[in-house]
Specification:
The chain is α+β, with helices and mostly antiparallel strands. It is 45% helix and 19% strand.
């Protein structure tokens, strides 16, 4: 289908230069919904409105009401600018990657007295990071093994006397003496060699100790050593050797079909395939998937907690030189042998993932995007991508909170969920402060989005009736000058959602109840949103209430002030765990001996 451009766009198309640069497509609200780049802006931008469009690109063009361009000198500059603009605007139709891997790393810290620890955040602090490790429990067990066999520092530093770990042989003594730098350096070399896969001598020693423990009938000790062996193999020796060297490599390949792009990533560490990731997303630039693939790689390494390897392998057709210059690591395309076979295997896996996606796509769209369209159609609104919903929770006025959930195209976007501790108390008898809570959370949410120039939702669903809807609309219209549609999710006398409440009294439109077919996907989505926001609010309130109750108990303990209380809350999180902690555990959390004894006596 060919979409007719607006008069404004038609006039701007005549002025497009034949230069490289970036273009920013905007919707009716002036929000940037897509960022692209081209060697020839005139040809690329005109193609959106002068050519037949299908799929994802057709959806995009249907929403375009204006655009801006930025010209640059070279295609490489356009590429770098595109990545910057995508990060800045987070456009809906561009590929959006979730931050972080969710997997832990083992870190050797860069300090005078270094230590080994697990971390999920990579800092540019010149520390050594190994991983990420998909099996969290195996990584934890391996770290404990390292701390026992290759000790560095396990205490908080100099305290004038040896710590408990020093007496256990798990600390080199930074707690009471100046440990020579060479002693640390030698130990770090051993740890790095171990984590890089040289575990033969360690395994041999463990096997010998296990056999000796078994021969001495110390079966519990033998089982403990057996588990250590298992965890080490899981973390450090997870796969068989599949490469001829120990170079850290990431292998990227892709497969395209029906305007969808599937990317497969293999992570090779210590000459083994440590893990893999797959990303599948719809294409907007149908004719140039290589551009989207290249952009994906740069964004991938622009995320937090992404460590660049020593080498990246990509298929033919990619500008390896420019990509290498941007990422500052070699980017190569193997022509033969084992590396080429791995690249082809990555493509085959990308194809399998995309085939699975197609089998589920039709059913998924009907249950998600189609369901969301039913809600907008019932309200007489044009389709919108984002729905936000609020709910409040309290116990007879105590610890009032509010929760926000976000659904994008019918699916929960949990990274966008928000929690709010409310300032006012709820007067349960007359419900008067229910309005104040609604006003407060709406003011805080959308006032912040305004200040940060972020995109507003297309619809707000309040978990309540006319009172909550009117309070929300009053803040939006009269305080923030926003015109976001607001509807209420109304329950029947059996506390089951059965209607939407919608209207605009400010503009003379009375509220009315709008039914949804109880057997429709739209009705199912509405009840799912309501259940989700209620669950999220209740869960948050229970944690807040429990934490406040725990704080009160700790405040009653003699010698425990706010700082000590916070140390205990951070370290243990619950009264039960504090009760179960030993004196040494409490002292390691930062308490003095007197404070720790007071806690044990009181609890």
């Amino acid at each position: 289908m060919i979409f007719l451009a607006t008069e404004l766009v038609e006039n701007k198309l005549k002025l497009l230069p034949e230069k490289p640069g970036c273009y920013l497509m905007k919707d009716i609200n002036g929000t940037v919904i897509y960022v692209g780049k081209s060697k020839n802006l005139k040809n690329r931008v005109r193609s959106y409105f002068k050519s037949k469009q299908v799929g994802r690109r057709a959806e995009l063009v249907k929403e375009i009401r204006d655009y801006d361009i930025i010209t640059v000198s070279t295609d490489k500059e356009a590429f770098l600018l595109e990545i910057t603009l995508i990060k800045k605007y987070q456009p809906y139709y561009n590929v959006q990657l979730k931050q972080g891997t969710g997997y832990p790393y083992i870190e050797i810290t860069n300090e005078r007295d270094p230590q080994t620890k697990l971390t999920s955040v990579i800092h540019k602090d010149k520390g050594y990071y190994f991983g990420p490790y998909p099996n969290v429990y195996a990584a934890q067990a391996t770290l404990k093994f390292i701390q026992k066999v290759f000790p560095l520092r396990r205490c908080n530093g100099h305290q004038g006397r040896p710590c408990l770990y020093y007496h256990m042989g798990q600390c080199l003594g930074a707690c009471f003496k100046n440990v020579p730098q060479k002693e640390y350096d030698d130990q770090i070399k051993r740890i790095k060699r171990f984590l890089n896969g040289d575990i033969a001598s360690v395994k041999q020693d463990l096997i010998q100790r296990m056999e000796e423990a078994s021969a001495d009938l110390e079966f519990e000790r033998a089982a403990e050593i057996r588990d250590q062996l298992k965890y080490i193999e899981e973390t450090v020796e997870k796969q068989k050797i599949i490469s001829n060297d120990n170079t850290q490599r990431d292998i990227f390949n892709f497969y395209v079909d029906k305007s969808w792009l599937s990317v497969q990533i293999f992570f090779l560490r210590q000459a083994k395939l440590l893990r893999r990731e797959t990303k599948v997303f719809p294409l907007t630039e149908e004719n140039e998937p290589e551009d989207e693939f290249t952009s994906f790689i740069v964004q991938f390494y622009g995320q937090r907690n992404r460590v660049l390897p020593k080498e990246i392998l990509v298929p033919e057709g990619i500008d390896n030189e420019d990509l290498s210059e941007i990422l500052h690591v070699p980017v190569r395309t193997p022509q033969r042998g084992q590396k080429k076979a791995l690249l082809e295997m990555a493509k085959e896996n990308a194809k399998l993932k995309l085939d699975d996606k197609f089998r589920l796509l039709e059913l998924g769209n009907r249950k998600t995007k189609g369901a969301q369209k039913e809600i907008f159609d019932a309200l007489g609104l044009p389709y919108g991508h984002v729905i936000e919903s609020f709910d409040h929770s309290h116990i007879q006025g105590a610890d009032p909170v509010s929760a926000l959930v976000v659904f994008k195209d019918g699916e929960p976007d949990k990274t966008s969920y928000r929690k709010y501790k409310l300032k006012g108390e709820v007067e349960h008898q007359n419900g008067g402060d229910e309005l104040r809570n609604t006003r407060e959370v709406v003011r805080r949410r959308y006032g912040r989005l305004l200040r940060e120039h972020k995109k507003m939702p297309d619809l707000i669903l309040m978990d309540g009736g006319q009172i909550q809807v009117e309070a929300c609309e009053d803040v939006l219209r009269n305080e923030l000058n926003l015109n976001i549609p607001v509807a209420g999710m109304v329950k029947d006398d059996k506390h089951r959602t059965n209607h939407l409440l919608f209207g605009d009294p400010i503009n003379g439109e009375a509220f009315k109840l709008i039914p949804l077919d109880p057997k429709s996907q739209g009705f199912y989505l509405m009840t799912r949103i309501q259940d989700e926001v209620h669950r999220f609010a209740i869960t948050f309130h229970r944690r807040t209430h429990a934490k406040n109750a725990l704080s009160s108990r700790l405040d009653e303990i003699k010698g425990i002030g706010p700082k000590s209380r916070n140390k205990l809350l951070r370290e243990f999180g619950s009264l039960k765990k504090i009760k179960e902690a030993s004196i040494d555990d409490l002292r390691n959390a930062g308490l003095t001996l007197t404070q720790a004894q007071s806690v044990k006596l009181t609890l």
